[in-house]
Amino acid sequence: MSIPMVRKRLPDGSLGPLEPAFPEVVNIDPNVLMLLEAIVGLQEQMMMQQIEIDQLKGGSE
After folding, report:
1. What mean pLDDT do residues 4-21 have?
2. For residue 20, pLDDT beyond 90
3. What is the C-alpha separation between 8 and 14, in angstroms, rounded?
4. How many whole angstroms separate alpha carbon 2 and alpha carbon 22?
5. Please, what's the b/e burial string for 13-22 (b: 16 or more CB within 10 A of its CB; e: otherwise)?
6. Percent of the chain with pLDDT over 70
């Protein structure tokens, strides 16, 4: 698993050195990552289902 790297824009407008995008999360267990992705997927499904329910009830905007 590669660590995403970014360059922050410096006050003078130039790009700074490459640094980790998420320095606080360096090593994460792949199983935990898979579980978190599953949770996010379920949350998205719940949101889409709630929108569909609201539309069927006539409560959509």
Report:
1. 89
2. no
3. 9
4. 12
5. eeeeeeeeee
6. 90
Q: What is the DSSP string of 2-56?
A: PPPEEEEEPTTSSEEEEEESSTT-S---HHHHHHHHHHHHHHHHHHHHHHHHHHH
Which residues neighbour 7 within 8 Å (Cβ) at sequence distance 6 or greater?
15, 16, 17, 18, 19
Whether 5 shows a pLDDT value over 80: the answer reads yes
Structure tokens at 44: 């998205």
Per-residue pLDDT, 40? 94
